[in-house]
Amino acid sequence: MFHRLVNRNDDLRRLVEKGYAVAFNSNYLIVRDIPYLDAEGRLQVGAIVTKLVFVDQESVIQEDHQIFFAGPHPHGLDGGAIPNLGGGPTQLPLSDAVTDVVVQRSFSNKPTATGKFRDFFEKIESYVAIISGPAMQRHEASPYTFRAVKEVVPNSVFKFHDTLTSRAEIMDLAAKFKDDVIAIIGLGGTGAYILDFLVRTPVREIRGFDPDLFYIHNAYRSPGPLEESELNRPKAEVYFSRYDNFRHGLSLAPKFIDGSSVDDMEGVTFAFVCVDKGSSRVGIFDLLLSKQIPFIDVGMGLKRRDGALSGMLRATYYSAEEGQKVRNENLAPTADDPADEYRTNIQIGELNALNACLAVMRFKQLRGFYLEEVPSYHLLFKTGDLKIIASSHDEDDEN
User: Fold this and answer.
1) How far is 301 from 51, CA to CA, in rounded Å?
2) Is 373 helix (H, G, I), strand (E, B) or coil?
3) Is the pTM of this model over 0.85?
4) What distance in Å separates the CA atoms of residue 246 and residue 255, rounded to the nearest whole number?
5) CB within 8 Å of 396: residues ≥ 6 apart
6) Residue (of 322, 306, 305) closest to 366 by Cα position
7) What are the structural domains of the chain?
8) Facing residues of 300 across strands?
9) Which of 64, 184, 274, 331 has its CA at 20 to 30 Å from residue 99's CA atom?
């Protein structure tokens, strides 16, 4: 990535040619070997970190005029903290490849004339003059070390730069998914949306299973546009063609999963069960519980009421430890209901998407990405009053 970015972006090339110790990591530009004075006037060395915004795979622009700094607040020749740097104490998670760069502060200093920097070269030059000027004068220190820092950056599961994570400064949270192998059993309405959300989540691998073909009614509760060529093809093929260009570690098979599908679940760390037949759940539940794979089962129950549809969405979590206990509560139907309005293919894409949201958010809570205030194992969303009812084992223990 270093050579591609330097060759494609003139401002980055100029930084390297001037002698700055330039490196790239986790969608950040890192400039090491930045000298500064501490409160006692001693020479110290820090690093400047600033975000890269990718406009394509190789061209980058600035997000704003701010930077991060690996070091405390630098001081001037008079022993006082350098003024007009703004910002304040902060932390910024970077990858394990740059453990020597520990961000402690952010700085904000706009150019007086224009209010923004033309490019990265002007930005780094301006901040170095402010931060390093006193150290350069007192100790004849130089930020131009021409040091090449070669880093081993872990391969991303994404085929495009994950600038969303770096812009939101949540790299440490995104890393919580790095070892997950996810199975999605059923790629119908809700399963398709779960797939869409997880494709954009940095889990290591996604395995999807669905034996059915993709018909036109599926398009009405499926994310993304419809290509006529997709009709009458296996759902697994349709969705693989849609998402294969986005990430690695994606495998979708036109296959029915039941109690005998032991090999398909080998190595799976979490599963989503998205089937609309209660009878299909029996074998799937047997399989996942026997392998102690935690999973979330989703469901939807709609009836006509006063001339409109009414019902509930469900997301039920079966942990490896408490899964059988939850199953014994019979929260998920294991028999088919011929009166279920959902089976008539009423187009309810927004409910499928919401059901998928509940399931994926619950999974992300379990991984520590979202805060979990109450460890719920059963979520019900009522379409009539738009309320969510949550059940937890703590409540059961109290009763």
Assistant:
1) 46
2) coil
3) no
4) 23
5) none
6) 322
7) 2-158 (no CATH), 179-398 (3.40.50.720)
8) 313
9) 64
